[in-house]
């Protein structure tokens, strides 16, 4: 093997290893993810180095000249190599337009006053620029290599979800979203949605494949769906179902087979109808309240103490009134015997223990007295200490508890106007603040680094009841772009995503179209590109699926 051939193999292997590191550590570590990025960067630079010049330098001249000039000459060859790469990139119009979003962020510095945050934001979003450059200028992968990368992606998520599930069932968390330690549970949910469709491709679309692979794909689909349910990933599950419906609709429209059309239409009806009926039954159960005659409530507990009844409160928990049959002293004494957490302190979620206790007892239909305390199991006590206020939330195989939380958050907001604690109501408050900022800065936006300051001022202007530690940003990527860069910036952003896909015929490819739908849906409720994990996930798959492979997989 010649030196040149060995060098090419080394560079290509480094490139592959760098991509594999990125895929593996997307849901794990942003630091090792950065190592993957730097590995790909190094391979990209070395890929175009003129070996003839490099070897020729060491074959001529004195030893002193070689030692003195070796480093600057090598550095010059590296810059020459980068120049070659950029010339290829500048001839690739779709890749340039995709990467131009980073230029939009640089231009946003014109309107920025907080340059410290702006520079941090530019570092976080560097994948917007470098990933399209790498994939658009390097040799694309064949279909078999592409499938291997997708296998790494899926298997890696199996490891992540198994580890998170172990934590879930061993109660190593306070909020269920905390089971995803290294990455946002929402970004993880999007990755799982993508993995579901990768497995689905090998199960349904890829016909010439062994039965063992199809069986494995089926098992993976069941597992990932089960994980989305037990982790209560509303975003992941919702994005998956909506993406599935859109793909079924597209396939129905394109198919010439009457039987396939009928099957797709039936599947859409089953998904929409079944989901709607399930949701309707949960909402009906939530608003179904026990029949209580307030005029005949017992006034004395079995231990001879007076109950407190607040008959004006309509708050319920799992269909039971919360603020009746309360005996405070018995609760205090009974709780002190069952738990080391003081009755008047807070649980692990920062909520008042006594309120969590009362709500939990109510959810089980127990009276809030010594007898109710005694009926609690050790698992119940541990759940209350962790801030779980409804026994429904102990069922990991049901979304009922999560939907109950949303409904309760809505009721609390209706009664008090305070959205704090409800993810749905908080998002509505985020969006209300967003439109307030947009109204004042609709043309140019507030700039790359001033978004946090703009939101803080807007929340004050609104006199919001949202807790100040929850004064977050849009939770909608399109609104974030509009706030940061104005109407012109939003148009630029939309063109940068749709034009490259249209020119490269990405919307006709199963994998790219699936990813694109998942990503666009996520941007409706999340700031997908405002974290390193989110921007790396989005631009890696966008650039890789569009520029990094030779063959497409038609829908």
Structural notes for this entry:
It is a single chain. With 555 residues, this protein is mainly alpha-helical. It has a domain at 294-388. Helices cover 67% and strands 1% of the residues. The chain contains 22 helices and 2 strands. It has helices spanning 3-25, 30-46, 51-59, 63-90, 93-107, 115-124, 127-137, 143-169, 185-205, 211-230, 234-254, 258-287, 328-338, 353-363, 370-375, 378-385, 400-416, 423-440, 451-462, 477-503, 510-525, 532-547, and strands at residues 316-317, 320-321. A two-stranded antiparallel ribbon has the order 1-2. Strand 1 (316-317) and strand 2 form a beta hairpin. Helix 11 runs antiparallel to helix 12, helix 12 crosses helix 17 (400-416) and helix 21 (510-525) packs antiparallel against helix 22. The longest helix has 30 residues, at 258-287. The chain is elongated and about 105 Å long. The two termini are 42 Å apart. The model has no long low-confidence stretch (mean pLDDT 86).
Number of helices: 22
> Which residue ranges are poorly predicted, with pLDDT under 50 across at least 5 consecutive positions?
none
String of helices and strands: HHHHHHHHHHHHEEHHHHHHHHHH
Question: What order do the strands of the largest sheet run in, or round the barrel if closed?
Answer: 1-2
**What about the largest sheet?**
2 strands, antiparallel
Question: Shape from CA axes?
Answer: elongated
Number of strands: 2
Question: Measured on Cα atoms, how large is the radius of gyration?
Answer: 28 Å
Give the distance, in angstroms, between the N- and C-terminal Cα atoms. 42 Å
